[in-house]
Design goal:
Strand content: under 5%
CATH superfamily of the largest domain: Fumarase/aspartase (Central domain)
CATH class of the largest domain: Mainly Alpha
Number of domains: 3
Bound molecules: arginine
CATH topology of the largest domain: Fumarase C, Chain A, domain 2
Number of strands: 6
CATH architecture of the largest domain: Up-down Bundle
Oligomer: single chain
Strand order of the largest sheet: 1-2
Shape: elongated
Order of helices and strands: HHHHHHHEEHEHEHHEHHEHHHHHH
């Protein structure tokens, strides 16, 4: 592959006297990328040929030769023997050229009422539809891992943070289920993109439609699209389906990156909340004590690459006049890369979450630091002593300062000290000052109380087809 035989000229070179130079061919060829759409291209050609014969645009004989040839081409693609040739530019011309070798002159009739402009974007929509399905499966596996671990840890106390400062005790299960919510919205965004992209550009031809009596409903239906696209200019030039898909992937990668960052923090010696399994840790060549969370860091970094794929395509489409222009050829490279990166990231995260060991004692201890039950004390003053919340906030603040001075937790202050700040306080207040009581009290819908979290975890497991 790659030898400059000028073969693409056989396809379009009727009016050319000289073949393209090597560098022209190098910048022009997309076969190394778009060969991934080989099967989609064959499917599109099959549907097109079936329609052409049905509409009596080609003969039965030619149709049979074309379909038999496409069978052979598909066989070669699948067994790896297909002779990809860079001088044939792209997958469409590669397949058509091979079809001609296998099926003879009938192959030349396949491109009737079709252009590479509608062909390429038909293939690309089909490919993206399949890739969204795979991404959805991969995210679902991660959801299963998260829901399973969340159910195990519905009562495990950890510090909840705002500003990365200890805020209030939460449960680990609650924290993990937050990612289930995010990632499930990502699935919905992706499936919305799959619905929006599911219209068929085939038959738009180069840009203006065709004078042949084609049946666009027939090809659309054969390829599993919901309907043919209504405007031929739009059909060949629209790439918002890819942008929408990449935007959804980019958002999901952003979610993975946030979780990855938490894994990095949690597995540090300073946090000590969790340890990655050996399979998901790497060592240092100089520091023998190190267990590095490389996969988590890579997910964090690669999320930016996926966002870059999105912005690069948006840049290519922005200010591009209708209809097709060759700038659009790189849409596939960007989209394939985004899906490949995303798949690696989701699967790595799933592996890490499935095998990570959490350290509930360290989490509980961290949750008890930083006066995480101060809000509970303030709420107690409001509820039991009818203080206005602002005043309760003030009294609690004074007690926090006191505890800070004495180097102890709020629950370790003596009743005398508490009563010095608010004389009506009684022993009962100690009931709300432990982290367990604090978390258990947050029973509002969506709250962190273990009973709520185990309900939610059970619901997730059920929705995901796991045994609750
Ligand atoms: N390889 C091209 C692409 O991926 C196919 C369409 C080419 N069309 C054209 N008029 N040159 O966009």
């Amino acid at each position: 592959m790659g030898e400059n035989t000028g073969e693409s000229q056989k396809m379009w070179g009727g009016r050319f006297a000289a073949r393209p130079g090597d560098i022209m061919e190098a910048i022009n060829a997309s076969i190394d990328v778009d060969r991934r759409m080989a099967e989609e291209d064959v499917a599109g050609s099959r549907a097109h040929a079936d329609m052409l014969v049905e509409m009596e645009i080609i003969s039965e004989e030619d149709h049979e030769a074309i379909q038999a040839g496409l069978d052979a081409v598909l066989g070669e693609i699948r067994d790896g023997s297909f002779p990809y040739n860079r001088s044939l530019e792209d997958i469409h011309m590669n397949i058509e050229a091979r079809l001609k070798e296998l099926a003879g002159p009938a192959a030349g009739r396949l491109h009737t009422a079709r252009s590479r402009n509608d062909q390429v974007v038909t293939d690309f929509r089909l490919w993206t539809r399949g890739a969204i399905d795979e991404a959805d499966n991969a995210i679902t596996d991660l959801l299963k891992a998260l829901a399973t671990r969340a159910a195990e840890h519905s009562g495990t106390i950890m510090p909840g943070f705002t500003h990365l400062q200890t805020a209030q005790p939460v449960t680990l299960g609650h924290h993990l289920l937050a990612y289930c919510e995010m990632l499930n919205r990502d699935r919905r965004r992706l499936s919305a993109a799959a619905i929006h992209l599911n219209e068929c550009p085939l038959g738009a031809a180069a840009l203006a439609g065709t004078g042949f009596p084609i049946d666009r409903d027939m090809t659309s239906e054969a390829l599993g699209f919901d309907r043919p696209m209504a405007n031929s200019l739009d059909a060949v030039s629209a790439r918002d389906f890819a942008l929408e898909t990449l935007a959804a992937l980019s958002i999901s990668a952003t979610h993975l990156s946030r979780l990855a960052e938490e894994v990095v923090l949690w597995t540090s010696a300073q946090f000590g909340f969790a340890s990655l399994s050996d399979a998901w840790s790497t060592g240092s060549s100089i520091m023998p004590q190190k267990r590095n969370p490389d996969a988590a860091e890579l997910i964090r970094g690669k999320a930016a690459l996926i966002t870059a794929n999105f912005t690069a395509l948006q840049g290519a489409v922005k200010a591009l006049p209708l209809a097709y222009a060759k700038d659009l050829q790189d849409d596939k490279q960007l989209t394939f890369a985004a899906f490949d990166t995303f798949d690696l990231c989701v699967r790595s995260m799933t592996g890490m979450i499935e095998t990570i060991t959490f350290h509930p004692d360290a989490m509980r201890e961290a949750a008890s630091k930083g006066f995480s039950t101060a809000t509970d004390l303030a709420d107690f003053l409001v509820r039991e002593l009818d203080l206005p919340f602002r005043e309760a906030h003030h009294v609690t603040g004074a007690l926090v300062a006191k505890a800070e001075n004495e180097g102890c937790d709020l629950s370790e202050l003596s009743l005398e000290v508490l009563q010095a700040a608010e004389p009506r306080l009684t022993e009962a207040v100690f009931e709300v000052l432990t982290v367990e009581k604090s978390a258990a009290s947050r029973t509002s819908y969506g709250g962190t109380a273990p009973e709520r979290v185990s309900e939610q975890a059970a619901q997730w497991k059920q929705r995901l087809g796991l045994e609750a």
